[in-house]
Design brief:
- Strand 21 and strand 22 form a beta hairpin.
- The N and C termini lie far apart (about 50 Å).
- Helix content is about 30%, strand content about 20%.
- It has three domains: about 150 residues, FAD/NAD(P)-binding domain (3-Layer(bba) Sandwich), CATH 3.50.50; about 140 residues, D-Amino Acid Oxidase, subunit A, domain 2 (D-Amino Acid Oxidase, Chain A, domain 2, 2-Layer Sandwich); about 80 residues, Arc Repressor Mutant, subunit A (Orthogonal Bundle), CATH 1.10.10.
- The chain contains twelve helices and 22 strands.
- Strands 1, 2, 9, 10, 11, 12, 19 and 20 form an eight-stranded mixed sheet that branches. Strands 13, 15, 16, 17 and 18 form a five-stranded antiparallel sheet that branches. A four-stranded mixed sheet has the order 6-7-5-14.
- It is an alpha+beta fold.
- Helix 1 packs parallel to helix 5 and helix 1 crosses helix 8.
- Bound molecules: flavin-adenine dinucleotide (FAD).
- Flavin-adenine dinucleotide (FAD) binds next to helix 1, strand 18 and helix 8.
Amino acid sequence: MYDVVIIGAGITGTVLARDLSAYHLKIAVVEKENDIADGATMANSAIVHTGYDPKPGTMKAKMNVLGARLYPKLCEDLSLHVKTVGAFIAACGEEEEKHLDILAQRADEREIPYRFLSGDEARKEEENLSDGVTKVLDFYTTTVIYPWEAANACMEVAMKNGADLYLNSEVTGIEKNEYGYIIHTVKDDLITRTVVNAAGVCADRIAAMIMGDPGFEIQARRGEYYVLDQDAQPVKHIIFPVPSPVKGKGVLAVPTVYGNTLIGPNSDFIDDPLDNGTSFDGLAYVRQNISKTLKNIPLNRSIRTFAGVRPTCSKHDFIIEEAEGFPGFINAAGIESPGLASAPGISRYIIDELLSKRLILKEDPEAVLTREAPVVLSELSTEERNEMIRKNPAYGKIVCRCEQISEGEIIDCIHRVCGARSVKGVKKRVRPGMGRCQGGFCEPLVVNILARELGISPLEVVLDSEASRILESENRK
Ligand SMILES: Cc1cc2nc3c(=O)[nH]c(=O)nc-3n(C[C@H](O)[C@H](O)[C@H](O)COP(=O)(O)OP(=O)(O)OC[C@H]3O[C@@H](n4cnc5c(N)ncnc54)[C@H](O)[C@@H]3O)c2cc1C
């Protein structure tokens, strides 16, 4: 019997799994996809918002401020890529400037540092800021991370501390029994004392499996992006328009930890919560709206477009609470933006305020909550690289020319705990296919490496889901 079963291996579920693995508890994470973090955690703006935006008194505000404060330690413990870029909130005209004052007031109350710049001062630091920008509020401590890396690192730590991960295990039903709950999945049935529902856009469906009417609905709200090539870096800071109650944070430009720039997202309610395709209209909206705050955006240097789906809650806030009448069944629902920034805060809140009332939380002195960074060859000096290649010649074979990823790094990511099992799994972990050619050259090589390392035929290698085989049949020996 498990003490805690977490449904959903996004950033909410994986950070919680890592933090819970510090205690003497039996933990499982159940995920419907073939890899962790395939939902909103995979496709977002990657910003650790400092917490100035959410309305006072909301769970969003509380979790965001707490989460953002916990991130530096989390990043250090897990050796994550993180970059302090600062966030410019760019106002155009007097009306919008008034809103900057509201945000600054919230920041004062939450002890978040900022500075004001005039439009001209800001343009000296950001030459592509549009001429219509009259005033900027700079939250200069804002960072960007690689959300997928954070989730993967958390899951790896949790598993090393004994947590179980069930992939391809969609939860199909939940029953209450005298000890707690039975979680029915398409593969196994798990018995557990407590449950945390961290199922993103499906969290209302999971809650309904036990509560009937959970009292909230999740609506899927899609956001689409352009990804610009690394050598086209039009901004140094994250550039936001002034946020609006209807369109949220608006269309942004975000410098990523790897030197690409994201331009987006739009904000469109969609019927199918699992539809993460981009659309003609959505991308047109992005193109049109980025020009409000920025000029000379080289969209012709786009190497990819993608979309993420926000789980927007009918209660307009995060729902992080025990379900009434169901002791030990905890919903972490409606975790839309700033859910990435809030994840470490949400995890602490669930452990300290909710699970602590149902479980005995005794720290495990053997648990290790830190993670050693994987080798990233392109980040090493020539001497260090040569030394690595001398020890293991696979580090000398470059597989992905765009991102300079070696075969050694790909082999490492397959054999690490919570390792890659698909081409996309390798891409997310060590980035072959993230560059200009988008896998055109390296994908066949990655297929062969996966087949060899997993001891399977290349015909069995999948792109992403269990059903997404790439090769149909052998046509030549
Ligand atoms: C366009 C966009 C931009 C954003 N930008 C930011 C940002 O810059 N900063 C920020 O702080 N936040 C941002 N967010 C929000 C952030 O991405 C989310 O809040 C966060 O990723 C939510 O994580 P999660 O783990 O709760 O959900 P998810 O990552 O969606 O994970 C839920 C998991 O549950 C699994 N699941 C669902 N149903 C089942 C089932 N029946 N059985 C088993 N598993 C199941 C899913 O497969 C999924 O892996 C953005 C979101 C979007 C979409």
